[in-house]
């Protein structure tokens, strides 16, 4: 879903600190420190520019002063980015005052245009007559970023987005910290004018283009991989103020990071956001954990639970508008593997029965209709949550036969032709039990 969330590398490949820094040698030129330079954990950053044969070219950017390798410090910020965000917000205030006939959006520059800027963009493709409804749905106007590892933007389909919002309201939450979920944020914003709608949202996203559509109280330019607020202390305070549960308004964090990002880096940032939430109350919320929906593929379950043991994975399949495979209604391997991980009580997460979900009285949670309860495991063990993965239909017969069975060696349900995690067979090298071939002591003597 995410609004162009940066991966843990932080810097783009084309702008990484990998070339020579000698002036005139081609690569990167160090311009030195600046009084207003942003800071990373290693102190004030240094200003660089990409050069070619001694000539400056390209945008200037700040990078860590101590670490040359971006794996050691992933801090990165364009020099003009903060200025651009401020200008974009001012442009929006003037743009909404224009009559419909004078509202244009440049598709190449991805920005709203004022009449004085038309001539400069005359050779660009642009959209005309931008309506108020379009302004409230910026994800429909902006081109999605498509680098799967660094800033992939896959937007929730209306079905999933509406389900999440309805669930949030039914659970009694009135504030949503939308971390990398612009489609959910704009759905909340579009309903904000309704008298009986009480939910508010703050969007934290790496895509600064959203600055031109939202105020400082609605959007913070944020890198979820290193918990960095590009707006500095002011943005940090905006987020902290939003997390304060005034008049009992409960807060929930909903996040949908790029699937190619490092789970460890994401977990670290989410824990820091949770710590901010705890700081807003003197009692520390009675040692409770900030409510959370982490939307991620089911095959990352073990990694997520490593950092957040309190999370449970729900069977609900989240689908996306602009993803070729992750769509609702597909079957087999093309069915969406994206799930909701939450620290809320599973029984409170009501899944739509009309979409094939049912309530398991033993597990006390809603599961997919194809997720059969195993009496030995005493759990609904399916991860894929589709009928065809567990049952083989015999042609012209009504009877179904289970394709999975409970393996006593593995102590879980699995396919019949699987390889046991626990086996009586010894090492392939020495034949002894207790170790694998790669760890065989005999290999060191060979």
From TrEMBL:
Q: Which keywords has UniProt assigned to this entry?
A: Cytoplasm, Metal-binding, Methyltransferase, S-adenosyl-L-methionine, Transferase, Zinc, Zinc-finger
Q: In which residue ranges is the amino acid composition biased (Basic and acidic residues)? A: 12-21
UniProt GO cellular component terms: cytoplasm; nucleolus
Single Gene Ontology MF annotation? zinc ion binding
Q: Where is the GRF-type domain?
A: 40-82
- Domain CCHC-type, by residue range, is 427-442
Q: Where is this region: Disordered?
A: 1-30
- Annotated compartments: Cytoplasm
Task: Please tell me where this protein is predominantly located.
Answer: cytoplasm
Q: What is this protein called?
A: ZCHC4 protein
| Gene name of the encoded protein | Zcchc4
